[in-house]
Specification:
Elements (H helix, E strand, L loop, with lengths): L6 E7 L4 H16 L4 E7 L4 H6 L7 E6 L2 E7 L4 H8 L3
Parallel strand pairs: 1-2
Antiparallel strand pairs: 1-3, 3-4
């Protein structure tokens, strides 16, 4: 369970996953742009197998959006910036 207040987007990825690699520069850019709005956390599935198993991560990338510690949305697969903005409700 995530205990952070505010909005947190967790990106569960792997370096061998082509959509994950494609999303990395965009997520890095959004992390800077959303600095005060959404915290972006990136987890390598291979290095965090216990967490991945407990969250039942079966597809990559998987994006988990939390608001005030509660899971609000869970989506898998490549997402562009507009889809991420809609998911996190950030302008």
């Amino acid at each position: 369970m995530l205990t952070s207040a505010g909005k947190v987007l967790v990106d569960i990825n792997a370096p061998w996953c082509p959509p994950c690699v494609k999303m990395k520069p965009m997520l890095d850019s959004l992390d800077t742009a959303w600095k005060d709005k959404v915290k972006i956390v990136r987890l390598n599935k291979d290095e965090n197998q216990l967490i991945s198993k407990s969250l039942q991560i079966n597809e990559l990338p998987t994006l988990l959006f939390y608001e005030n510690g509660k899971l609000v949305k869970r989506e898998s697969g490549y997402k562009n910036a507009e889809q991420l903005k809609a998911m996190t409700q950030v302008e």
